[in-house]
Amino acid sequence: MKMVLASILVVILTVALALAAMYALVLTTEYVTAIDSTLERLIAICAELLLGVVLLLGTVWVATHFAVRIFDANELPSDGGPLA
Asked: What is the pLDDT of residue 15?
């Protein structure tokens, strides 16, 4: 039961993080496209791309990290007994 609740919570957290990242990127895109100077806009676009990569990779990392924590086998290695 505990694993099921944790799995549901991780899915909700992952979806919330992805939506928040996309919301932040959309707001940033609107701000960047309003910049008049070409050089400043180019720098802002590069920063936005970096922000997008960091946010979305962070979302994937959090999802996989929690999934590994939840579904880990927790088996301790044996003390040298037979393998078969």
From this structure: 92
Instruction: Report DSSP state, residue 72.
Output: -
Strand blocks (E) in the chain: none
70 dihedral zone (left: phi>0; alpha: psi -120 to 50; beta): alpha
Distances (CA, A) of 30 to 1, 25, 39, 40: 44, 9, 17, 14
What the block records as the tokens of 25 is: 């990127």
In percent, how much of the chain has pLDDT > 70? 86
* Cβ neighbours of 63 (radius 10 Å): 17
Q: Supply the pTM of this predicted model.
A: 0.71
Nearby residues of 6 by Cβ (< 8 Å), 6 or more positions away: 66, 70
